[in-house]
Amino acid sequence: MIELENLIIEPSAKTPQIDLNRLTGDLLFCGRSIPENATKLYEPVLNWVADYILEANPTTNLRLDLEYFNTASSMYLAKILKVLSRIKVPEYVLIIHLYIPVEEFNEINEFEDICDTFSPITDIFHDSTTSIGLKLYAKDDRGEIIKTRLVFIESNN
Fold first, then answer.
1. What digits encode the pLDDT tens for the residues 28-44?
2. How many contiguous H segments (helices) and E segments (strands) does the chain have?
3. How many domains are contained in the chain?
4. Full-prediction pTM beyond 0.70?
5. Within a domain: 2
6. In a domain, 109, yes or no
7. What pLDDT, on a 0 to 100 scale, did the predictor assign at position 126?
8. d(CA 65, CA 57)
9. Where are the alpha helices (DSSP H) in the chain?
10. Using only C-alpha atoms, what is the Rg of the chain?
11. Does some domain include residue 1?
12. pLDDT at residue 106, as a whole number
């Protein structure tokens, strides 16, 4: 099997920074995602993730620090999440780190709020083969993280 190399895509005005690190298991999406051609941007990422899950790290950290993304981007992000939820070793963990404005963070008070707010993400994981955690980060107007909360763990072991 060919060694999977890291995938780094530099940001532009319409595309996020994407940094997929095989050795650490850190998968970073940061910035704005409004590409004119989402397939051109995300298809190599989706292929990389499909290869990654064959020999994933015990802990995979998917960091979604996207200030804005369009519908086409959200469809690819959903596909990427679906693939990552299929990591073959049940004892391995996928942690999804979501960065949101502090106002939205403060509005989430109860478990039902969490389920309602993040149902598009959590619905993807009903048939997961690995354990999944969801961690929220509240960001202020300067982009500084001021609060965190671990809000969801699912394990189909």
1. 999 999 999 999 999 99
2. 5, 7
3. 1
4. yes
5. no
6. yes
7. 67
8. 21
9. 38-52, 71-84, 102-107, 111-117, 119-122
10. 15
11. no
12. 82
